[in-house]
Amino acid sequence: MTAFVPHLQPHPTPASSDGRPSLRHVAVIMDGNRRWAAEHHMAPRDGYQAGAAKVTEFLSWCDQTGIEIITLMAASADNLLHRDPRILAEAMDIIVTALNELADHGRYRLCPIGRLPRLGPVTEHALHRVRARTTDAPGPTVNIAVAYNGREEITDAVRALLARHLRQGTLSSLTERLSPQDIAEQLYTATQPDPDLVIRTSGEQRLSTLMPWQTVYSELCFIPAYWPDLAHSDFARALTSYHQRHRRFGA
Ligand code: IPE
Ligand code: MG
Known about the structure:
By secondary structure, this protein is α/β, with parallel strands linked by helices. The protein has helices at about 35-40, 45-65, 75-80, 85-105, 120-135, 150-170, 170-175, 180-185, 230-245, and strands spanning about 25-30, 70-75, 110-115, 140-150, 195-200, 220.
């Protein structure tokens, strides 16, 4: 009988030497912008504007703690499908302007992720430029999920693998030896550790397609504040809670 040899990836992030779980990658679902605007008797775009201002603040909090990768869920593919196109266009303008300002700032490596062609050629081009302008930035990497759907990310990864093996004539051997690692290497996050902590604001408690592959062992933190109201103390509490957890990874 052949021995059972599991195809396993290494732990997303091993514990640091003091036994506390280390925190290399934090992902955030920045929810509650429109509700914040409605509560202030403002238009949705004012909520997105306030949300964009919070992004700058949030990134500096992360930077101070030495987090290497920050994923920001800005607009899902389902948002694009189901929301008023006028309000979406305003939101995308605010996102692109905020990213250009961050790129000017020069600290962060900005990586827009998602099916960017869905946003139209002008926005797609602007996002590619933001990426190109910041590839050598010294600070943390910031993934910005726009037109993003986690199942599509996995689907695209499998498609890319199949296409490559079809070209190479190695499709039949792929069916024998396809491993989780092969798929992980085709994702937007191929070279990054998985998110250690996922934070969602506004009190909603779900992941809404954010990185289903990469979050299997992520710790989750749900914060009642709307995204534009997120305070540094909320973030600090989330970090304290995370560092008190015992990550077992099935052990
Ligand atoms: C968040 O703000 C957008 C996300 C992709 C998470 P919303 O625009 O969803 O604001 P609410 O949730 O309707 O208040
Ligand atoms: Mg929402």
